[in-house]
């Protein structure tokens, strides 16, 4: 999905850099670039590379980053995983395969909460991702405090590197986001005021009385109540109420022309 507004860069920065993303022996520059793009989507800036196969910097990574050069220029390269995570207080390792290790296993959503909690306590945190072909070794995972596993199709749960980073990054971002789960784009309009609604209701009901729609008379109160409930539930904007008023005017005008 396209959508970049560079004017919001400061706003994104206020969310914090979040956990470090540590790629252990990444093989393809393109995957590093796509990972950088996924990171910047989620306001993650701390990329750490452990012994990248094709060296660093890598032109293929820049080409695949789609503008996320801010992440690539900050990237740091380490010789070993131990060196890359030495300053971190919480370390989570991602893997889709069962391991013969006694480690807590958390979902991506729980991992995001744990990462946020660590940040609130002033502890730096990181997420480890393994090589594209083989994933993390047991020795890599032994350094982690917990394992992150994503409940997916058990017959096909493997993710490519950038997908895995985006999934974890998204959960981390959402755990600190204040965006409401549902909102309506108003297109520059405002919700109709009760005064505007009442004017529309009275005009509509008067018109329906004149056309004989409110029949029989004893059912009029119920019909009025149902109509008002219908339009109130729709929560029309001021522009939409004006449109409805215009429809009434057009219908009345057509009726009057038909009588001539």
Molecular structure report:
The chain is of the alpha/beta class and 260 residues long. The protein folds into 2 domains: 16-175, Alpha/beta knot (3-Layer(aba) Sandwich), CATH 3.40.1280; 194-259, Orthogonal Bundle (Helicase, Ruva Protein, domain 3). It is 47% helix and 10% strand. It contains 11 helices and 7 strands. The chain has a 7-stranded parallel beta sheet. Helix 2 (29-41) links the parallel strand 1 (20-24) and strand 2. Helix 2 (29-41) runs parallel beside helix 8 (161-175). The longest helix has 22 residues, at 238-259. The model is unreliable at 10-15 (pLDDT under 50).
CATH superfamily of the largest domain: SPOUT methyltransferase, trefoil knot domain
* Outline type: elongated
Q: Helix and strand string, N-terminal first?
A: HEHEHHEHEEHEHEHHHH
How many beta-strand runs? 7
User: Helices and strands: which structural class?
Assistant: alpha/beta
What is the CATH class name of the largest domain? Alpha Beta
Topology (SSEs and partners):
Layout lengths: L8 H5 L6 E5 L4 H13 L5 E4 L8 H6 L4 H6 L1 E3 L2 H4 L5 E5 L10 E2 L1 H13 L4 E5 L8 H5 L3 E3 L12 H15 L18 H18 L8 H15 L3 H22 L1
Parallel strand pairs: 1-2, 1-6, 2-3, 4-6, 4-7, 5-7
Helix pairs in contact: 2-8, 6-8, 9-11
What's this model, at a glance?
The protein is an alpha/beta fold and 260 residues long. The chain has helices at residues 9-13, 29-41, 59-64, 69-74, 81-84, 108-120, 138-142, 161-175, 194-211, 220-234, 238-259; strands at residues 20-24, 47-50, 76-78, 90-94, 105-106, 125-129, 146-148.
């Amino acid at each position: 999905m396209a959508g970049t507004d560079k004017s919001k860069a400061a706003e994104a920065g206020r969310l914090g850099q979040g956990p470090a993303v540590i790629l252990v022996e990444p093989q393809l520059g393109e995957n590093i670039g796509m990972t950088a793009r996924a990171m910047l989507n989620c306001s993650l800036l701390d990329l750490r590379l452990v012994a990248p196969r094709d060296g660093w910097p890598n032109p293929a990574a820049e080409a695949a980053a789609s503008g996320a050069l801010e992440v690539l220029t900050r990237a740091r390269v380490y010789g070993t995983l131990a060196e890359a995570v030495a300053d971190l207080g919480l370390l989570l390792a991602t893997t889709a395969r069962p391991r013969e290790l006694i480690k807590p296993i958390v979902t991506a959503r729980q991992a995001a909460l744990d990462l946020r909690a660590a940040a609130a306590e002033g502890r730096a945190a990181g997420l480890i991702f393994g090589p594209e072909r083989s994933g993390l070794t047991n020795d890599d995972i032994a350094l982690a405090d917990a394992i992150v596993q994503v409940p997916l199709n058990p017959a096909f749960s493997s993710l490519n590197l950038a997908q895995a980073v985006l999934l974890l990054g998204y959960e981390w971002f959402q755990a600190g986001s204040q965006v409401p789960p549902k909102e309506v784009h108003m297109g520059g309009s405002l919700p109709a005021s009760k005064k505007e609604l009442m004017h529309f209701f009275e005009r509509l009901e008067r018109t329906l009385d004149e056309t004989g729609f409110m029949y029989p008379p004893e059912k009029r109160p119920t019909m009025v109540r149902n109509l008002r409930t219908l339009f109130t539930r729709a929560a029309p904007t001021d522009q939409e109420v004006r449109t409805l008023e215009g429809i009434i005017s057009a219908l009345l005008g057509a009726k009057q022309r038909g009588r001539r």
